[in-house]
Design a protein that fits this description.
single chain, about 40% helix, alpha/beta, UDP-galactose 4-epimerase, domain 1, about 350 residues, 2 domains, globular
Length: about 350
C-alpha cells in the first residue's frame, strides 16, 4: 500500500485529493494547523474524515516538517498548503512570503535529509504569469507576478525545480489555473457568487457586492485537477505541467450564468465596491494544457457552464437543508460578513490601485 502526505489537507484541493487517493487504496496522511476551532468540514463533507490520518504541523517550523515526514514515511508528498487568497496577501505580504514561499524550501530540505526517494508535488499557480501580454499561457510563458502571493509561489516553484536539478529529487510542479467547486472557500469570488445567488433565490439576501467584473480567468473543476496532480507523480521523469481548460470567461459571465440558473436578472442583485479590487489586478489568464494532455493523458471534461451549475445547485441544496434544521458539515453559516472585516477602505484602495491596460497579442 502506497502512503501519501498532503499538506493543506483541510483545503479544497487537499480534501478532494485525499478522497481520490483513498479510492486508489493509498494510506493518506495530512498536516493541519492546530487552531482553537479545527476546520475539518470539507473532509467531513466528503465522508472521509475517519479515513485520513491527521498530523499537527507548522509549515514555518522545519523540525515540525521533518517530524510529519517521519510519522507518515510517505512515498509521495503533495504540498497544497499556502495562504492562497490573493487579496489577503496584499494585507499580509511578509506572512504570505513565509508560508507560501520559504516554507516550501524547508519542506524540500526535510525531504533531502530524510529520504530523497520521496516524490514531491508542488502546487504552483497561474497567478505567476500576472499580466503576461499573451493570449494563452503554457510551460514556457515568462512569469510576471502581480501580487505577493504570486511572487511567493514563483519562489517556491523555482526552488522546487532547483532541488530537482541539484539533488535528483523527483519534484513535479503543476501550474494550475483557477479551479473551483462547492468546497471552495467563501472568500473566493466563485463561491461568493454561488453562495450569494443561492441566498438571494431563497429570500435570505438582497444583493451581492463584488469587485472587478471584467477580470477573465480559465475556470476548471477542482476534483478533475487533483487527478492531474496524482498523474504527475506516476511518471518516469518529473516535469512541470499547466493544468487548465483552455477557455477564458469573465467574472461577469460567471455572475450572469449563476443568476440565470435561478431565473433572476443579475443586474438587479449585484453592485460594485472598490474595496474588493486588488491593488494590482491580473486582467486575463488562459492556459494551454496540451503538454498535460500529451504526457499525462489528462484533459478537463466539466465545462464552464456545468461548473457554475454544480456550485449554485450545491449551495441551494445546502441552504435548503439548513433552513429545514438539518445538521451537516458546512462553512456558510459561520462566515462573517465581509463588511465586518476591516482591511483597507475603498478610498485607500482607490489611492493604491494602479490601473494597467494590458494589450493582448493576437
Amino acid at each position: 500500500m502506497k502512503k501519501a502526505l498532503i499538506t493543506g489537507i483541510t483545503g479544497q484541493d487537499g480534501a478532494y485529493l485525499a478522497k481520490y487517493l483513498l479510492e486508489k487504496n493509498y494510506k493518506v496522511f495530512g498536516t493541519f494547523r492546530r487552531t482553537s476551532t479545527p476546520n475539518f468540514w470539507r473532509l467531513e463533507n466528503l465522508g472521509i474524515f475517519p479515513k485520513v490520518n491527521l498530523i499537527p504541523a507548522d509549515l514555518l517550523d522545519m523540525g515540525s516538517m521533518i517530524e510529519s515526514i517521519k510519522v507518515s514515511d510517505p512515498d509521495e508528498i503533495y504540498n497544497l498548503a499556502a495562504a492562497s487568497f490573493v487579496s489577503t496577501a496584499f494585507e499580509q505580504p511578509v506572512g504570505n512570503a513565509e508560508i507560501t514561499g520559504t516554507a516550501v524550501t524547508k519542506l524540500l530540505e526535510a525531504i533531502r535529509f530524510y529520504d530523497k526517494k520521496i516524490k514531491f508535488y508542488q502546487a504552483s499557480t497561474s497567478e505567476m504569469y500576472g499580466n503576461s501580454n499573451t493570449t494563452i499561457q503554457n510551460e514556457k510563458t515568462p512569469f510576471s507576478p502581480a501580487s505577493p502571493y504570486a511572487a511567493a509561489k514563483l519562489y517556491a516553484h523555482e526552488m522546487t525545480e532547483v532541488y530537482r536539478e541539484a539533488y535528483g529529487i523527483f519534484t513535479a510542479t503543476g501550474i494550475l489555473f483557477n479551479h473551483e467547486s462547492p468546497l471552495r472557500g467563501l472568500e473566493f469570488v466563485s463561491r461568493k457568487i454561488s453562495n450569494g445567488v443561492a441566498q438571494i433565490a431563497l429570500g435570505l439576501k438582497k444583493k451581492i457586492i463584488l469587485g472587478n467584473l471584467n477580470a477573465k480567468r480559465d475556470w476548471g473543476y477542482a476534483p478533475e485537477y487533483v487527478k492531474a496532480m496524482h498523474l504527475m507523480l506516476q511518471q518516469k521523469k518529473p516535469n512541470t505541467f499547466v493544468i487548465s481548460t483552455g477557455e477564458t470567461h469573465s467574472v461577469k459571465e460567471f455572475v450572469k450564468l449563476a443568476f440565470e440558473i435561478v431565473g433572476l436578472d443579475w443586474k438587479k442583485y449585484t453592485s460594485i465596491d472598490k474595496r474588493f479590487f486588488r491593488p494590482l489586478e491580473v486582467n486575463y489568464l488562459r492556459g494551454d494544457y496540451s503538454h498535460a494532455k500529451k504526457v499525462l493523458k489528462w484533459k478537463p471534461t466539466v465545462t464552464f457552464s456545468k461548473l457554475v451549475e454544480i456550485m449554485v445547485n450545491d449551495d441551494l441544496k445546502r441552504w435548503k437543508m439548513f433552513l429545514n434544521g438539518e445538521r451537516f458539515a458546512w462553512d456558510a453559516p459561520l462566515y462573517p460578513s465581509e463588511f465586518k472585516i476591516i482591511t483597507r477602505t475603498s478610498e485607500e484602495n482607490n489611492k493604491y490601485t494602479r490601473k494597467r491596460t494590458t494589450k493582448i497579442k493576437k
